[in-house]
Amino acid sequence: MVVAGLCLLTATSLRAQFLSGTALTSDPVSAHGYHTFSSLNPGYAGVFGDGAVFASGQSLAAVLDTLVSSSFTLGVRQAVGSFDGAISANLTYIFVPFSARYVIADIGFAYPVLDEAGHRLLVGGSLGLGSREIVGFQQAGVPTALDRRNRFFPDFDAGIWYTYQNLSLGAGATHLSRPTVEYTSAITATIDDVYYLNASYGIDLDGLIITPAFLGRYANSGNFLSDFTADARFDDQFGVGVGYRIDLRRQVPPNPSFPVVQERFRQILLSAEVGFEDRFSLRGTYTYVLNQFAADRSNFELTLLYRYQKSQESNSIP
Fold first, then answer.
1. How far is Cα 82 from Cα 278, in angstroms, rounded to an integer?
2. Using the 8-state DSSP alphabet, how is residue 166 labeled?
């Protein structure tokens, strides 16, 4: 009983430590990247040019290694105009319970480097202002930031996006300035710059659209998370999907006496989505952690998106 209690106390302490640290330095990891890609890659707006609002939330997927906190996100993207390219505005608010909340507002520009014979290649960038604020800690012994206040920082993103017929390829980078936020005289955090790779291809089988896709995320802190997914959509109204997420870092073998920290994690993703006239989209994803030492094995994420401004190419969004 004593050993079990010590193990539980150690796991809880580590979970709290990772929770507070990761919430301050990393963006939430979402299984719905294709619904909110404007915040990951400025080239997205140049391809699709639609306006949308979205709300997303997920429960705790707490592998002690990386995915450590629930989160709630609200966002809006708006096509502003075009001058030999596309200009868009994005606003995102994220709340991480018991840890932090932060806001990113930016203006992005995407320029068509290639646009002929169905081939489109856009290069984009964005400039914005962000803030992150501590709202509390769960770990005992960490001082509460009584003098906390919003900490603002400049934010820079960049990306490229290529499309041809049903093929879509992209690469993006966020938080390129790697800003350091000083919350108090004793607490500072450097926000991770994150790099994204995405690929998808739509296969039309007489009204049934099968879309295999890949989304990889590499954070400067070292983790490389990869989602391999396949969606099936029926008449643009209903869809289901399955996926596999894995941490592709090279890690040293686990310490047999304390295997929790080093274990690489893997997840199975099961999704369902309903839509209406390409305006509303509601997607839910259940993930199951396969690791033996996961603190919580299940996670559920729900995203509601409404396109209030459709572009001619909205129907080609993965």
1. 23
2. T
* Long-range contacts of 110-117, Cβ-Cβ distance < 8 Å, separation of 24 or more: 110/42, 110/43, 110/44, 110/45, 110/46, 110/47, 110/85, 110/86, 110/161, 111/46, 111/84, 111/85, 112/46, 112/84, 112/85
Phi-psi group of 175: left, alpha or beta (phi > 0 → left; psi -120 to 50 → alpha; rest → beta) = left
Residue 215 corresponds to which tokens in the numbers above?
Answer: 């989304």
The DSSP 8-state label assigned to residue 38 in this structure reads G
For the record, the structure tokens of 280 come out as 């509303």
> Pairing relation of β-strands 167-174 and 100-116?
unpaired
> Whole-angstrom Cα distance, residue 25 to residue 119?
37
pTM exceeding the 0.70 threshold for the entire prediction? yes
Q: Quick count: other Cβ atoms within 10 Å of Cβ 84?
A: 6
Q: How far apart (Å, rounded) are the C-alpha atoms in residues 172 and 47? A: 14
Cβ count within 10 A of residue 304:
15
The Cα 82–Cα 78 span in angstroms is 12
Model confidence pLDDT, tens digit, residues 120-170: 898 988 899 988 887 765 444 454 544 555 578 888 999 998 999 899 999
